[in-house]
Amino acid sequence: MTPKVAILISGSGSNMVSLVEAMQSTGFAEPVLVVSNVSDAGGLVKAQSLGVPTATVDHRDFGNDRAAFEDTLQIELEKTAPDVICLAGFMRVLTAGFVSKWDCRMLNIHPSLLPKYKGLHTHQRALDAGDAEHGCSVHLVTANLDDGPILGQAKVAIKPDDTADTLAKRVLPFEHELYPAVLKRFLAGQTEQLTLDRITS
Ligand code: GRF
């Protein structure tokens, strides 16, 4: 049976688009739902134009009640019974309770070579540290932020004149290449780390 995948977004959804296009073009999985926690996230329109059902669960409707937000998110997700969830630019920290419901079935993409630079401002932090290389990681989601087992990484060289912006723009296409490749392998039961070694510039 074709595995079903739901994708959580907060913004422009470029990683979501790359995941959906890969699934739709080769059929290794079915994108059943895109959920945003931001009602005007640009990714929602893109998902609709790709023919993927969408939903919004706006975290602001729940104030500080994180559990209530996640309960509603869970209800939306269960409607389409996904096998796997992909976080793709989803900018909410999820509680241990929610994560445990999707244990070993929820992936995230993070714009750094984990375990370096968990959290925000990853590109600037790599520059500030004087790193020679930077990149992105796809990992399983666990209760600790950006901390789960790494399933794949792509690396780029940092150039002397890079800014956080130029670096982010150079890493993003590699996110788009890495995430579908890792998802496909993961759904086939392969969890050893994929490294896109050829990406060196
Ligand atoms: C990406 O770098 C992603 O890794 C990060 O947010 C950025 C934008 O993602 N979490 P997208 O265009 O919304 O997929």
Description of the molecule:
- This protein is of the alpha/beta class.
- It folds into two domains: 102 residues, Rossmann fold; 94 residues, Formyl transferase, N-terminal domain (Rossmann fold, 3-Layer(aba) Sandwich).
- It contains six helices and eight strands; from the N terminus they run βαβαβαβαβαββαβ.
- Strands 3-2-1-4-5-6-7-8 form an eight-stranded mixed beta sheet, with helices on both faces.
- Strand 7, helix 6 and strand 8 form a beta-alpha-beta unit.
- Helix 1 packs parallel to helix 6 and helix 5 packs across helix 6.
- The radius of gyration is 16 Å and the shape is globular.
- The termini are far apart.
- 5-O-phosphono-beta-D-ribofuranosylamine (GRF) binds next to helix 1, strand 5 and helix 6.
At the fourth level of CATH, the homologous superfamily of the largest domain is Formyl transferase, N-terminal domain
**In DSSP terms, counting alpha (H) and pi (I) runs of 4 or more, how many helices?**
6
What's the alpha carbon Rg, rounded to whole Å? 16 Å
The overall pLDDT average reads 96
- Highest CATH level, the class of the largest domain: Alpha Beta
CATH topology of the largest domain: Rossmann fold
The share of residues in helices is 25-40%
The second-level CATH architecture of the largest domain is 3-Layer(aba) Sandwich
Structural class: alpha/beta
Total number of β-strand segments?
A: 8
Low-pLDDT runs: none
Small molecules held by this entry:
5-O-phosphono-beta-D-ribofuranosylamine
The helix/strand order is EHEHEHEHEHEEHE
The rough form would be described as globular
Strand arrangement, major sheet: 3-2-1-4-5-6-7-8
How many strands, which pairing sense, and closed or not: the largest β-sheet? 8 strands, mixed
- How many distinct domains? 2
Beta-strand percentage range: 15-25%
Termini separation: 39 Å
